[in-house]
Structures are given as C-alpha cells and as structure tokens.
Write a structure and sequence with these properties.
Length: about 100
C-alpha cells in the first residue's frame, strides 16, 4: 500500500499538479488525509459487520471473504496512518 498511496497523492504522481488542484480546493485540502484514512476504515467496518451478520449485503464466494476484505482495509488504514506526516506534507505542498 505504501507505494500506491504515495503515488496517488504525490504532486508529481497520478493526482499531482493540475489535477490535484482542480479536485481539491483550499478548504477541501484540509480534509484529504482524514478522508482517505476514514474511507478505508469505514469500508473495513462495513465488510466486518457484513461478515458478522452472515454476508447479507456484500456478495461473497466463501464464508470468510468479507472478513478478509475487512482485514485488508484495516491494514490499509494502518498504512495510511503510518505515512501521516509524509502524506500531509504532500497535500500541503501541492497547490
């Protein structure tokens, strides 16, 4: 995850420069890091909840698929949190 997330938010990466500036205005930029982190965590909670409730919302191929999906999202959240300073610097410097 480290490389992928940094590539997406890097000012010279996929969302860099003009595209990043067009998508995220001044006020929006303040919430980019928290939003990215929260979306990954929330999706993990949704997969885990669905696993506990018998897989009624997300379709699955086996009984533990939503549990595995949840764990992947929680690991992504951890990765995002471990890169907080770098990501926030990239967001701040991209104007």
């Amino acid at each position: 995850y480290h490389g992928t997330l940094l590539t997406l938010l890097n000012p010279y990466g996929l969302l860099g420069g003009i595209l990043f500036t067009l998508i995220f205005t001044g006020t929006d930029r303040e919430f980019v890091y928290d939003s990215v982190r929260l979306i990954a965590f929330e999706l993990g909670l949704r997969f885990f909840t669905d696993f506990l409730e018998g897989d009624v919302y997300f379709s699955v191929n086996d009984r533990t698929q939503n549990l595995r999906r949840a764990l992947v999202q929680f690991r992504l959240t951890e990765s995002i949190e471990s890169q907080a300073a770098v990501l926030q610097t990239i967001i701040k410097e991209t104007k």
